Amino acid sequence: MTRILGIDPGSRVTGFGIIDMDGNHAVHVTHGNIHVDSEVLTAKLRIIFGDITSVISEYKPAEVAVEKVFMHRNADSALKLGQARGAAITACALQELKVFEYTPNQVKQATVGRGHAAKQQVQHMVKVLLCLAEVPQTDAADALAIALCHGHSREGLLRMRKVSGIRGGRLR
Questions:
Q1: DSSP state letter for 112
Q2: How far, in Å, are 16, 54, 88, 163 from residue 29 at the CA level?
Q3: Distance between CA atoms of residues 70 and 1, nearest Å
Q4: Whether residue 167 has pLDDT greater than 60
Q5: Count of other CB atoms within 10 angstroms of residue 156
Q6: DSSP letter string over 30-93?
Q7: What 3-state class would DSSP assign to 2?
Q8: Calpha distance 155→160 (Å, rounded)
């Protein structure tokens, strides 16, 4: 069984979600949001870094999955997102955790089956796939979806390696 921390970075709200993967079976452990109320950049980054560090210390994930930054229309928003993402990744790196990155479309494809799914569809599928009593808040649902995406991707790669005899990128 592998414990995976999914992180949906944001400069105002950073979502996190933890699942345990056993083969293709995912079990919900916890999820939540880190709310950043400060307008001071260094304070925002310190809060994200500290809270992610606390989540790691409490739940001890083996691997971390983070959403990649994408540039839609606003360069300033992408820059702020990148800074929040950097604080979260640094918290993971200092705990010597492997960090894997996925695009928003990869996450949506893995959870909903469509790369351009709506947020509500992601929330609904996360609830269904993890047998949750309620639909999680958007940022936490995205973090759980990122963890699910990684969990299913890593299991697929492990199966492919077993079938083809690939070790470290080379055939046996």
A1: T
A2: 11, 15, 19, 30
A3: 31
A4: no
A5: 12
A6: EEEEEE---SSHHHHHHHHHHHHHHHHHHH--SEEEEEPP--SS-HHHHHHHHHHHHHHHHHHH
A7: strand
A8: 9
pLDDT: which is higher, 91 or 76: 91
Task: Tell me the residue type at 18.
Answer: I
Burial class for 36, CB neighbours closer than 10 Å (0-12, 13-18, 19+): buried
SS3 labels along 20-37: EEECCEEEEEEEEEEECC
pTM for the full model?
A: 0.86
Which percentage of the chain shows pLDDT scores above 70?
A: 88
Write out the catalytic residue numbers. 8, 67, 139
Q: Do residues 116 and 127 lie in contact, with contact meaning Cβ atoms separated by under 8 Å?
A: no
The DSSP 8-state label assigned to residue 152 in this structure reads: H
Task: Give residue-wise pLDDT tens across range 22-50.
Answer: 988 999 999 999 999 888 999 999 999 99
Question: Residue 135 carries which DSSP code?
Answer: P
For each of the domains in the chain, give its residue range(s) and CATH number, in order of start: 2-166 (3.30.420.10)
